[in-house]
Amino acid sequence: MSLDSVAVAARTVFGDRIDQAEAYVELLRVHGVERGLIGPREVDRLWERHVLNSAVIGERVPKGARVVDVGSGAGLPGVPLAIARPDLDIVLLEPMARRVEWLAEVADKLDLPITIVRGRAEERQVRADLGGADVVTARAVAPLAKLAGWCLPLARPEGILLALKGASAAEEIERDRDAVRRSGGGTPELFEVGTGVLEVPSLVVVIPRLPAPARRKGKK
């Protein structure tokens, strides 16, 4: 994307919170590589490849939803989503201490009302503390089969998992469809988000968590 098109897209996505988005990008630009959050080649494409790419998943998130972002890392997609959608109640879940420290710094510097938890989605205590989310998000964490097993237990029945994926998303859906079902998920669907805003829309796989009776039926 050209600088002009990035600027237009950023203002469209973030509106009057563009200053927070710009501050986040600057934090990533200055500290991201040295702190092992992004690769050196990503510095020049933070907006289109990471920040805008993440924020537009808000198109699939209901108003006022409680969201758990699994494996937040540098804060993607949770931080851009929190900036673009202040109506959401967002928890960033990250297992690595140094990244938890980074996320806490970002939340403080940007004055974002987000909760940061150190842990893994598959841990019993994490599921007890954070379960029942309306939406669980993940970006570049794992293949769908593993992701569904880790993340769907954090969603309430009929809640959803939103997995940001790349060009092979459709193939991954076909390959992992049965594994997703065994983890309590419904039929995965692939959507483009950011159409008309980004030159290359983001791809997100949406997986509903089935209610318990439907899960039992699916195992017969």
Automatic annotation (TrEMBL):
Binding site for S-adenosyl-L-methionine: 71, 76, 121-122, 139
Source species, domain of life: Bacteria
Keywords: Cytoplasm, Methyltransferase, rRNA processing, S-adenosyl-L-methionine, Transferase
Keyword Transferase: yes
Source organism: Amycolatopsis xylanica
Family stated for the protein in its record: Belongs to the methyltransferase superfamily. RNA methyltransferase RsmG family.
Any one of the GO CC terms: cytosol
Compartment list: Cytoplasm
Principal EC category: transferase
Protein's name according to its UniProt entry: Ribosomal RNA small subunit methyltransferase G
